[in-house]
Structures are given as C-alpha cells and as structure tokens.
Amino acid sequence: MTQVPNVRLADGHDMPQVGFGVYKVPQDETVAAVRTALDAGYRGVDTAVLYRNEAEVGRAVAESGLPREELFVTTKLWNDRHGYDSALAAFDESLGRLGMDYVDLYMIHWPVASLDRYVETWRALLRLRDEGRARSVGVANFTEGYLQRLIDETGVTPVVNQVELHPYLNQPELRAYHERHGIVTEAWAPLARGGKLLADPVVTGIAERHGRMPAQVVLRWHLQHGDVVIPKSVTPERIRANIELFDFALDDDEMAALDGLDVGERTGNHPDNVGP
C-alpha cells in the first residue's frame, strides 16, 4: 500500500497531497471505487453536492473500517446555495448525506459573481470552521480578484483553492498569488481529462524514459510543483497506478518541458462565466 505525504495547510491541518476524486463517478459505482482507493492507500476523498454521490462516499468510508481521523473528506457548496443562511443549511444537508459529524474541508464550489453573494457565503464557512464542523475551509475556481475580495472584506484567507490545472493550463500568475498568500493549490482535471495531453509527445517521451504511464508523469509534475491532486477513475488498475508516484522523480529539464506545454487551454468553464 502506498503511503501518501501530506501538505500542511495554513490553519495547521494536514491534507494528503494525492486524493481520490469522484466527479462523474456514478452512484452505483462510487462505493466500490472509493473502497478500492482506500485499500490502495488514498486517505483523501473529494466529493461535492454536484456529484450526487456524497451518501455513497460516506458509506464507503464507514464500511472501510478505517479510523475517521485518518481520512480527509472534502465536499463543496453548490452554486444555488450562496448566501449566509442558505450555505449553513446546505452544509447540514451535505453532512447528513455523508453521515459524518464533520468534514475536513468545506469549499465554495464556484464564486458565481453574478449573484454577488460569495463573501457572505464565505462568512458562513468561517462560522462552520469556528464551530469545528468543517475543520478547514477553502474555495474552488476563484481567480486572484475573487480571492483578494474575500481577504479584504473578511480578513481570512482560504487555505485551499481548487482550480483547473494541468500542463496545458499552468496558471503561473494564480500559482504565484497562492504562494504569496499561503494558499495550497489543488488541481482538478489534473490530467486535462485524459485525451490529447496523455498522448502529447512530450508526455509520452518522458513516460518512456521512466518506464511509467503518461498519467503518472503528469501527476508527478503536479507533485513537484507542490500541488494537491485528485485524479478520478473507476478502474482498479488506474486507481492504484495514479497513486504510485513516489518512487521516481522528474529532472529539471523534464519539468521545464512540461511547463512549456502551457497554451491556456481549459477543459471547463472560466470562473467568470459560471452562473447559478
């Protein structure tokens, strides 16, 4: 079983650097997939209201027999629940579906700037943190401007920002902002949802030199940049392969070659364009 290192968040809590994502994992496959991941050594699981599998994640965790304190469970508030009271109620609903007393990380899934409620939503998350029901609080898909407004208006910086990030969308300015403010960068779609990135000659060439799968090379690139990654799969072999990242390393030239693939290409929406 692979041992995954932790990254230390600004609030003092530890977060596994590799977690298991369950976006688009069907409900009837979630329990088995999460159990496979936990058996392989994953200790972080990332879900959300949008994914419609919080209950199944909770069931898999309960059935695993692992102590709850050894696991790091993340869920997220969906766009139609922005606002202070609404966010508090949404959190209670998520916690009920998970069947847990607390989550390790609760996040605002998108800022939904058109509603202009994400600051009051953030204040609700701070209350949940202070109550101990969300050990840490963060955001997803926030640009520098949205992050700065949270900091300016509440004085509290999110400990994590989960954003689309991969060699085709390197986001160097956002990464630099995170570093200045002590925000951990967490990558969703860390493999650019597969496809052409994993067939890119730069990626496949490095993979051949190391005797590794292209996905492992890209995930290793993330780790060496300090990112948290949450690869998703329902295939047991891939679930296990996606965590076998700690017995090889990319050299400076290989890292630079992967950095050089950045073309600003998104697989998802820009945060400015996501509504309720």
Protein described:
The protein has 276 residues and is an alpha/beta fold. The protein has one domain (6-193, 226-233): NADP-dependent oxidoreductase domain (TIM Barrel, Alpha-Beta Barrel), CATH 3.20.20.100. 42% of the residues lie in helices and 15% in strands. The chain has eleven helices and ten strands. The chain has an eight-stranded parallel beta sheet. A two-stranded antiparallel ribbon has the order 1-2. Strand 6 (103-108), helix 4 and strand 7 (134-140) form a beta-alpha-beta unit. The longest helix is centred in the N-terminal third of the chain and has 15 residues, at 84-98. The chain is globular. It starts with 5 loop residues before the first strand and ends in a 17-residue tail after the last helix. The model has no long low-confidence stretch (mean pLDDT 97).
SSE arrangement:
Elements: E1 6-8, E2 14-16, E3 20-21, H1 27-40, E4 44-46, H2 54-64, E5 72-77, H3 84-98, E6 103-108, H4 118-131, E7 134-140, H5 144-154, E8 160-164, H6 172-181, E9 184-188, H7 196-199, H8 201-210, H9 214-225, E10 228-229, H10 236-241, H11 252-259
Helix pairs in contact: 1-2, 2-3, 3-4, 4-5, 8-9
